[in-house]
Amino acid sequence: MNKSFFSIKIKTLLVIAPERSLLRKINDALLLVKKNDSREYKNLFSRLNVIFITNKSGHANEFFMPEKIWFSNTSVIVKNDLKWLASLIIHEAFHATQFKNGKYILPLGDKLEKPAIKVQEKFLKKLEGVLGKRDLEHSYKEKYWEKMEEDKISFAYFRNLLSFLDSNKLRIKHIKV
Hints:
With 177 residues, this protein is an alpha/beta fold. The protein has helices at residues 20-36, 38-47, 74-78, 82-100, 110-128, 133-150, 152-166; strands spanning 4-10, 13-17, 50-53, 61-64, 69-72, 171-174.
């Protein structure tokens, strides 16, 4: 693969992205989690090993177990504010708990997403005060899932990146934020 990536290490979590600004945004989202929910912040590091932001636009993202890697296209990071991004990281990391408890099975669907949405909603309520469940579910189902459904190519791309990452075939420059 010809594309280069940058990475930072936050505690035990490796964050990889094609641009430094994306690393800063993830770092800021994690700081928001730390400031507002220390328990969730602590849990993130046992649930996630890698956040990998691709160089592709598109609205898809996917959590891989048992690797504990969350892949996300650049658009997901760029087009969402810090609060939503922080809550999405919590949501995706929660899938590791589901896997650990034997509940992360295919096909994916409401059995996985509803509990992850509840964890995400709980965090957003801490930030927003009164963000209703209906608002979160509407945002997820009407906008997020529609956009993900349209982005079929990204899921194969994520698998290719995972293969390249596993075989050390990616050019990754480690930096400090």
